[in-house]
Amino acid sequence: MEAHPIALLMFLLGFVYFMTGMYLSSQPLPKKFAKKRDLRVAVLVAFRNEQNTLKECLDSLLQQNYACENYDVYMLDDRSTDASAEIALQYTGGSHPFQLISIVEEHHGLKGKMNAMSQALEKLDHDIILVTDADCIVPETWIQTYVDYFDKKTGMVGGLTLLSPIPGINISQSYKENLFGGIQALDWLFLQKVAALSSRAGRPISILGNNFGFRLEAYHQVGGFPAIGFTVTEDYALMRHIEQKTAWAIKHTLDINNAIFSYPVQSLSSFFWQRWRWLRGGRSMRMWGYFTALLSLMAKSLIIPAFLFTDYSLWAAGGIGLIIGIDYFLIKSELRIFHLSHLRPHFLLWQIFHISYSIVFALMSLLPFPVRWKGEKY
């Protein structure tokens, strides 16, 4: 019996998808710099109306095992209207160098977090800048681990952000992970694994703005955020400029010692605006990014037609098996290393969710929707 064209296409796309995943997984791990150094580090925490999570974030930065005289924490209040600034003020004046900077206006046409960071960076002379968000909690090894990855050739390092609690990170006792949070945790883990492996292959495609660091020298070499111009994904824009305009190397780590926890969004509408912001900000990504995204979209979009129209063909089943198998293979080791095995039962539900929203956003990318984030419209 002749194979159905959809079944053959399903197998072909599944095979290419599988081989792409195997190519990425073969890339070597980024290396740490063996010799311990006392680099001066500045931590930036920009916030707007984050009174419910800011204290946990700042407490985790108080507990670092990096020498307190070698790091400063700059809390950037971007015109909060809740009690966030009052909470931040409580951390100033102690033995740890925490400073509160109030952002009252926009400079150089920049907005939001990019504007806040730009104004803070104008005042700094540290070796390394680390960035996290007010709804994140970092482990005590966070700063030291980042410093270890900055060898003499490295200008930017990205870390892993997890949406499920891991050992070494103390979160609110009231937080209970639900099904939607677990599915998001798998989604973030998968996307970041692909990004990290792409970076190892010399093709960085993204970096998360709530867990990354860069050399201040590299930032100034590209002219800083004023020269880059406003974008809703300032982390990605800075990464691309450092990659394209300097000789600095970029590393993307999957290290439990600089992995952080961030609270997942609680509603589909918040998830939509978060991913829409990513999509709009990432339109200038490299061709490798478009290739991996389109390959994933095409391969996974064909799964439903393959089920409906191919009478359970072995060719179609083989293609689907290759896709689901390599997806699981890519995150299997991280589920074990980061103690996230409890997320395994959500894997098939995550696959359905991932396929569904990928199709929706692919269709919506043709529409001129604005970006809404942190109460602002861009």
Structure characterization notes:
The chain is α/β, with parallel strands linked by helices and 378 residues long. It folds into two domains: 13-26 and 285-364, no CATH class; 41-281, Spore Coat Polysaccharide Biosynthesis Protein SpsA, Chain A. The protein is built from 14 helices and twelve strands. The chain has helices spanning 5-25, 54-62, 84-89, 112-121, 142-149, 179-200, 216-221, 224-228, 234-245, 268-281, 287-301, 303-309, 314-337, 347-364, and strands at 41-47, 71-77, 98-102, 128-133, 136-137, 154-158, 161-162, 211-215, 249-252, 260-262, 372-373, 376-377. The strands form three sheets. A seven-stranded mixed beta sheet has the order 3-2-1-4-8-6-9, sandwiched between helices. A three-stranded mixed beta sheet has the order 5-10-7. α1 crosses α11. The protein is globular, with a radius of gyration of 21 Å. The chain starts with a helix and ends with a strand. The model has no long low-confidence stretch (mean pLDDT 91).
Topology summary:
Blueprint lengths: L4 H21 L15 E7 L6 H9 L8 E7 L6 H6 L8 E5 L9 H10 L6 E6 L2 E2 L4 H8 L4 E5 L2 E2 L16 H22 L10 E5 H6 L2 H5 L5 H12 L3 E4 L7 E3 L5 H14 L5 H15 L1 H7 L4 H24 L9 H18 L7 E2 L2 E2 L1
Parallel strand pairs: 1-2, 1-4, 2-3, 6-9, 7-10
Antiparallel strand pairs: 4-8, 5-10, 6-8, 11-12
Throw out a few tags for this protein.
Spore Coat Polysaccharide Biosynthesis Protein SpsA, Chain A, 14 helices, 47% helix
Mean pLDDT: 91
| Biggest sheet, spatial arrangement of strands | 3-2-1-4-8-6-9
Largest sheet: 7 strands, mixed
From N to C, what is the helix and strand string?
A: HEHEHEHEEHEEHEHHHEEHHHHHEE
Class of the largest domain, according to the CATH hierarchy? Alpha Beta
Shape assignment:
globular
Beta-strand level of the residues, as a percent range? 5-15%
Radius of gyration: 21 Å
How many β-strand runs?
12
**What is the tally of helical segments?**
14
Q: Tell me the count of domains.
A: 2
CATH topology type of the largest domain: Spore Coat Polysaccharide Biosynthesis Protein SpsA, Chain A
Category by helix and strand content: alpha/beta
How much helix is in the residues? 40-55%
Low-confidence stretches: none
Amino-to-carboxy terminus distance: 55 Å
Kindly report the oligomeric state of this protein. single chain
Looking at the overall shape, the CATH architecture of the largest domain is Alpha-Beta Complex
CATH homologous superfamily classification of the largest domain: Spore Coat Polysaccharide Biosynthesis Protein SpsA, Chain A
